[in-house]
Amino acid sequence: MKNEYLKFSAGNLVCLVALLGIITLASCENDFDKTESNDASAALEEIEVVDDNTVKIESKASLLTIFKSYKENVANQNNFNDKIRKIQNKGFKSLTPLFREGDSEGVQKFVLEKKKRIAKRNVEFGITSKPGANEEVALDDELISDPVLSSLLNENREIIVGDSLYKYTETGLYFCHVNNKQKLYDYLNKTSVTSRMSKFTKTRMTGKAMPQVVVADDGINQFLPTPAYIQPIDPGSGGGGGGGYTPPAPPVTTSPKLIKQNLEISYIEKNSIWEKVFGASDKAEDYYSDNRRIQVSFWNQNYYLFSSVGCSARLQKREKTLGVSYWEKSYADIIELGVNDVQYDYKFNTPVYNQGSYNYSTVFFEYKGVKYNIDGKIITKLPTDGPRFIFDTGDPEEGLTIFIHNNEYDLLTAKELNKAIDVLAKAFATKMPSTVDKVLLNDKIKNESLKYNVLKAPSLSNTVTFKTQNVKWSRNDDNAITNYFDFNFLLTWKSTYENTEDYLNGLKGATSYSNVSIDLYGAALHNGEWRGRRLLLSN
Q1: H helices of 90-175, where?
Q2: How far is the C-alpha of 192 from the C-alpha of 202, rounded, in Å?
Q3: b or e along 187-216 (b: 16 or more beta carbons within 10 Å of the residue's beta carbon)?
Q4: Is 175 exposed, middle or buried (0-12, 13-18, 19+ CB in 10 A)?
Q5: Low pLDDT (below 70) residues in the chain
Q6: Which residues sit opposite 235 in a β-bridge?
Q7: Helix axes 60-72, 10-46, angle to 10 degrees
Q8: Fewest 10 Å CB contacts: which of 58, 63, 80, 300?
Q9: Which domain of life is it from (predicted)?
């Protein structure tokens, strides 16, 4: 850019004012991001442990700030983990502690203490089964799947938020003013588990669609969530993890992308009575021959303080102490959590757009903010803008958005449509006018790192489809990958459409989707071998 002096004409002044406005707006946005970051840091710093081994957080707003920050990126997850380790070093006993690599003594101590707690719980619930020779204790909690909440809760599943104590149990959440803490303990001690479980089960069977807060006793409230549950898609093939079975490894000649698309499928099942309390939770494993496994977890739970829908992947190795087996974290060459495909369908009577204005094209592309037609020519506008897709990586170079406004793809199966989208992307890459972008896009397609966003809205159809493919997330410093979903992200979606002639303008403030399907996976490369599991979900 040439270094030229500005001549202040009226026109220049208008341009300068506009430029200053843009700079100010950008500055405000940066300040807003900094404010959010500072809020999260402040909320973490405010965490304290009171003398009875209970984390205290200033307010629900502070807790939500911490949770929101954790969801945003790996760096924030690491900051949260650092805070948990600090309070653990000062004596805090977390429900699911974070252990440093090589801290076998700490892990073993935790496993044996948890074994005692499980035995005590089993006595209370009348569970009389004797531990077998292969007794196993999980480092994760049976009730609480979310890593933020499970790390903040103490061993008794308690936390203080504001001036209230919250205690999560197998019969729901109980909460009261901190001054009534002993009253809550007395209530739980005097009320039999059988009585509380009977009340809990009866409430669940009433068929109420909304979770409830009821008065359990004077000054004591009980939260009875309605479990959010997402049914698995049945693709007609066998699946299911578990056991110690080691299936044949996929051929090394197969591309990683194809391996992940063809991993064995596990079905969401309610494996334990405890997992029914706050919502759906499931784990699936794939085993290596050297006592290691890749574990993929999914949960959709309502904790009253916040709701959490997410998944995680981690590599683990099997260890044993005093006859008790457990799985602690291990490290892989590569570990991935991602989405092969996610699709939302909306019932919407799509009108006809002016095809003549677009040279009668019905397929368009957008890459790095530039719009193209099917022939790779740059155009100034599209029939419709692309909405915020559910898995936005925030990097425009990572994603290619494809707009399909014809019905040529309507009768294709999901696999066929995905292949067709691949073909479209490859064909488009060969026609891009910019050599640099052409090389970049071809490289991303070749190394399978390109994320696809697809909007399919044929004129005069009754369905609009939003689709995202090939999304990956990286690990945090606890050697786990965690990502959160917002299955209702379009329930409150406010379209950014500015053109009143936009032919999808009626989707502004969109209503609920008619169908959602998700094909997610967790996979690890260990000793030259890819293993993992897929979870196929739908509403």
Answers
A1: 104-124, 147-152
A2: 16
A3: bbeeeebeebbebbeebbeeeeeebeeeeb
A4: buried
A5: 1-37, 128-134, 200-211, 226-255, 267-276, 386-398, 486-513, 538-539
A6: none
A7: 110
A8: 58
A9: Bacteria
